Amino acid sequence: MAWTDICAFEDLVENSGICALLNGQQVAVFLLELQGEPQIYAIGNYDPLGEANVLSRGMVGSIGEQIVVASPLYKQHFDLTTGQCLEQPEVVIPVYGVKLQQGRVWLNAELQNQQASAA
Amino acid sequence: MQQTKQILVIGNGMVGHHFVEQLRAKDPSAHITVLCGEAQLAYDRVHLSGYFSGTSAEQLALTTEEAYQAANIQYRLNCWVEQINREQQLVVTSQGGQFYYDELVLATGSYAFVPPIAGNDQPHCLVYRTLQDLDAIAQSAAVSKVGVVIGGGLLGLEAANALKQLGLQTHVVEFAPQLMAVQLDQGGGQMLSQKITELGVQVHTGKATQAIVAGTECRYQLQFADGESLETDLVLFSAGIRPYDQLARSCGLVVGDRGGIVVNDQCQTSDPHIYAIGECALWQQKIFGLVAPGYQMARVVVSQLTGGEQKFSGADMSTKLKLLGVEVGSIGDAHARTPGALSYVFTDPRAQVYKKMVVSSDGKRLLGAVLVGDTSNYDSLLQYALNDMLLPKQPEQLILPAASGAPLAALTLPNSATICSCHNVAKGDIVAAMDSGCCDLASIKSCTKASTGCGGCTALLKSVVDDELKSRGVEVKNHLCEHFAYSRQELLHLVQVGGIKTFSELLSRHGQGLGCDICKPTVGSILASSWNDYVLKKPHVGLQDTNDTFLANMQKDGSYSVVPRIAGGEITAEKLLVIGQVALDFNLYTKITGGQRIDLFGARLEQLPAIWQRLVDAGFETGHAYGKSLRTVKSCVGSTWCRYGVQDSVGQAIAIENRYKGLRAPHKIKMAVSGCTRECAEAQSKDIGIIATENGWNLYVCGNGGMRPRHADLFATDLDTETLIRYIDRILMLYIRTADRLQRTSVWMEKLDGGLDYLRKVIIDDELGIGAELENQMAALVNTYACEWKATLDDPQALKRFRQFVNSPDADENIVFVEERAQIRPATAEEKRQWQQQIPVTEITVKALAEEN
């Protein structure tokens, strides 16, 4: 498990996303607050339906129990923990490992979800 | 169809128009020519009596000449056909015009039957059929006190309503022993007579009129066969209709013994190239005098002409309407003529309600019904009859008042059940529309056309939609989304009353979950409209759609477009040069917009601050092209330059644009100012439109272009500038306060209870006493305006967001441009693939970055 230091925690934007470059892959990193605790998610930045690198600029929120981001292009929702598209369940995007250590945000290029085909 | 055929339609009544509309929808290239005998194109004959209660000819119109022109439909008005030459497939008009056809459609309709009564051809003896007839009736009524309608059928009672609305003492004379003998049984007819008499219309049944002679107190006297008489000034014949079949007769088509052009199941006449539809057609010895079967015939012919196989198989003649304010309904076998049929009758003499239900001998199927005074059961009963549904064990419950028998749940209807018979929309069509994303009544109506004909099925449609939504787990309320059980208006109220300044505060106090891409921007807009905080201030960042977050418009490849404000479309040469130089330096694609400004495309996220620094330095402000806010105030050049202009429209447009720039609203707002009545700025298609007059300004409101055009309503005339601004302040603030999310002013107006009159009362007469409050709120917003780009450039924290990667200076390699017509455009997927094979992507990126620096 190779972890890469991406940025400072302060570089994240609460209830929103930023984009990081991880071994040539674009990764969208979101910071949410769940029950008062900060929670960080990392998924592929590429929207396979809109065919553009835009997911980090989508709006985050919840649909039922699922934590999701809505693509800014055509508004499909992607589950931040599974990478699955809610509107088209056959579409699954990469989910990356993420951790917070001593104020720094680390990403792991190893995919957390099996179904996703690397972009 | 291999070759484009010439399709000629004679007649442009409701059915003829429906045919044209349907054919155009199915076959965009068909050559369609319409010969219309009246002075205007099709109008709504079903609601004709509304003409006397304020409905204008324009409102009755089903289409406009512009619409026909836009749909490439040739038409002639006042055009009467003299002769059909079947051999040459040629039609000759009374003016001598000749029209060849490949297929001819007769939609000639019918004319009012005038009974052969002596004296029936005198002045003030009229018929009730066309708009011209109505004008004649109005003229006659102006010099009359008493009016008689001869004929107590459905149309006769409509005509009586018209006379009553014109202020005449009204009588109805009917030959049969009861009113509406076709649709109602005796009991129903009696109840109807009683109610109508109480409404001031005198009913005379069982009267055969023999002559119309000079009167003593009134202009005329009707003499009846039983020796009695009735004095009147005006006689209106409405004793039934006769098909217009003269043309068909004279060219040798087969017609019925009692009139009507004989058609087969394909609605073809005895000449296979000639079709007949609507009230002129005779199918299986029957004429169908209602609009819905006529529409069905129209669709059958469209199907035949476009390779389909639809057939006409008769039509249900059930009907529900309001006559003189009395609800009347008739379904199927109202007279219980089916052998063995059983009748249930319920009468409430106090409320004057009569209901009869006719069921099969085994009590399992509904055959017919009569409803007078209360038609609330009509929809349920009709569905039982049409769908041959099994009746409940105690069927009488269906007509008994407030019994435990619940009304038929729309959910139990089969998908094949017809909901809207005018447009032939089945429940399945509505469900399909909902599957494809329509989830409110308005969008379902516009998508399926259901309930846009006679409107009789409105209530049923609503219950189908509501039930279907419920069954899908959608709560049928105006709730914004799953996170807030409130409408936009309610949320705005909560925010303003509670002094709530952030989304998280609102969510924790009034919502649940984390929010979503529906409620966040809505609340963001409400907060902006209420407090006018800088939208990128930390608590608001996550609330903005990407366009609002980055203050630019995202394009399909993830790049952005940039639109500086050019108020009123006025710009100096220096500023034009700045825009041109910025576009050159950043290699942007430029295009002039419809709102009289310039859009710069192809900016990458990380370029936006540098681009805006240049623009702001040159004195530009953000154009809010990304926001649900005021876009532009378009103007014509006005009195300063134009020979015809009567006011300075450019100056006014600039002042207004600067006043309302940055105003956050439920949806975008567009305005325009024209310097004279020639209206070169197209103000009447805007949310707020202003047209100069000799004496000031005319204010138009709630217009729209785009997908669903709406002509703006004239709100007030000859205003001075101060009053004009006061009214606009109030209207916009009221709109912001009360509109739904993403509701343009046009739809807001259409849904506003009381419509334009109500709006005038609130804004001009200040009936609610909120005028000053609305003005103060607007003043607060106007006074706190700040250019968001200027604020962003001054805020290092906000600027941090304008980079593609948090950990690298690289650019997004997926944004690739190629050249077209000497400017850039996004590369297609195919072009990107080819490029990637030729040049390593990193090289492009490096090159692009080098150019930038």
Automatic annotation (TrEMBL), chain A:
The keyword Oxidoreductase applies. Keywords: Nitrate assimilation, Oxidoreductase. The keyword Zinc does not apply. GO terms for molecular function: 2 iron, 2 sulfur cluster binding; nitrite reductase [NAD(P)H] activity. GO terms for biological process: nitrate assimilation. InterPro entries: NirD, Rieske-like_NirD, Rieske_2Fe-2S_sf. Residues 3-107 form the Rieske-like [2Fe-2S] domain. This is Nitrite reductase small subunit NirD. It comes from Rheinheimera tangshanensis.
Automatic annotation (TrEMBL), chain B:
Pfam families: Fer2_BFD, NIR_SIR, NIR_SIR_ferr, Pyr_redox_2, Rubredoxin_C. Residues 6-290 form the FAD/NAD(P)-binding domain. Residues 555-616 form the Nitrite/Sulfite reductase ferredoxin-like domain. [4Fe-4S] cluster binds at residues 636, 642, 676, 680. Residues 419-465 form the BFD-like [2Fe-2S]-binding domain. Its EC number is 1.7.1.15. GO terms for biological process: energy derivation by oxidation of organic compounds; nitrate assimilation. Keywords: 2Fe-2S, 4Fe-4S, FAD, Flavoprotein, Heme, Iron, Iron-sulfur, Metal-binding, Nitrate assimilation, Oxidoreductase. Its cofactor is [2Fe-2S] cluster; siroheme; FAD; [4Fe-4S] cluster. Binds 1 siroheme per subunit. Binds 1 [4Fe-4S] cluster per subunit. Residues 318-382 form the NADH-rubredoxin oxidoreductase C-terminal domain. Siroheme binds at residue 680. Pathway: Nitrogen metabolism; nitrate reduction (assimilation). GO terms for molecular function: 2 iron, 2 sulfur cluster binding; 4 iron, 4 sulfur cluster binding; flavin adenine dinucleotide binding; heme binding; metal ion binding; NADP binding; nitrite reductase (NADH) activity. Residues 627-763 form the Nitrite/sulphite reductase 4Fe-4S domain. It is an enzyme of class 1 (oxidoreductase). Homodimer which associates with NirD. Belongs to the nitrite and sulfite reductase 4Fe-4S domain family. This is Nitrite reductase large subunit.
